[in-house]
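Q: Structure tokens for this one, please.
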Amino acid sequence: MTKKKQCYSGIGGQAVLEGIMMRNGDKCAVAVRKSDGTIDVKTIDYKSALPKNWFTTLPFVRGVVNFIDSMMLGIKSLNFSADISMDEEDGEPGKFETWMNNRFGAKANDILLTITMIIAVVMAIGLFMVLPYALSALMGIWIHDKVVLSVAEAVMRFAIFIGYVVLIGQLEDIKRLYMYHGAEHKCIDCIEKGRILTVRDVMRSKRLHPRCGTSFMLYVMAISCVLFFFINVGNPLLRLGLRLLLIPVIAGISYELIRLAGRFDNPITRLLSLPGMALQRLTTKEPDEDMVEVAIKAVEAVYDWKAFLKENYGYDVKDEWLSEDDEQSDDQDDLEAEDQEEVSEEYDEDAIESFVERFEEAFEHIEEAFEEAFDEIEEAVEDVFEQDKDKDDL
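A: Here is the predicted structure, written as tokens:
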């Protein structure tokens, strides 16, 4: 078999509580590992929140639509996985849930889903958009240089985002969520590299992928810093309002970038992907084989990966290849191609490690600069108080 470049599969997913959600177009599946060891799979025919037409499929506009769909589908999948956990614990519905069911009937779940999504969006905007702006505005009492304030706000936005990712990653449930996130990435990478979808092949695939929600969020952070820099209006509330109005624009640009990075493999797209893939070291962890089994079930519920390999890599999958005990490669050409891929993977890992090291060094320099700036501010404030005290003495 001739070595080919990694092919785009078009599938994506998300980690949920003890499981994986996979999406292929309008078909979605959620696979969850139950406490008895079995895997529960639910298939969903998802319809977009907005009807598909010439406008909603335009570049940049489609990014906003996709973001809304991903949010709603993600929360719906999380609710499904949480319902399985509640069913296993034989938990009784709470008073609010009972009231919602009695009041709205079959529409109760859709209403709760909408409320949950709105709360999540508001909290994200407040934490990653409004809070850095408010802190920079507070610094504006002492610092009057707009460029310095813009840089300070950008640094605080990134620091809050990365700090949040690291902090929630210390929770045991989130650690397992990150492991399932790694299993999702490994399954997609396995298929797109032309490998058969077995636990053994998935486990040796990469857990970092350019087409990831983590990378999307990082693009949002970076693009917002650039666009917000050009908002120069005096009224603070108007300035905040304009920033909020730019959120759909930021989401649209970020989606196009991540789509570009996921579809093409060249030096430019690899450079674009490096920061996001470096951050994925925090949001993905190496899964165990049980988690990979769940991810495979989710993929197979919505995607014909055997047909994909036949179309893009030119071979039919034989039943004996699916045996986990079969340690032999498919054929000699596959071995040579995989060896070349392993070298490419090592190169990618080295590049990411180097980027992370440079990022940490830059962050340390920025931290030192801020410490010096705050020391100077503290000294200036003390001088002001001293002068006021001297005037009072006179």
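A few notes: The CA atoms of residues 14 and 21 lie 5 Å apart. The beta strands are 12-16, 19-24, 27-33, 39-45.
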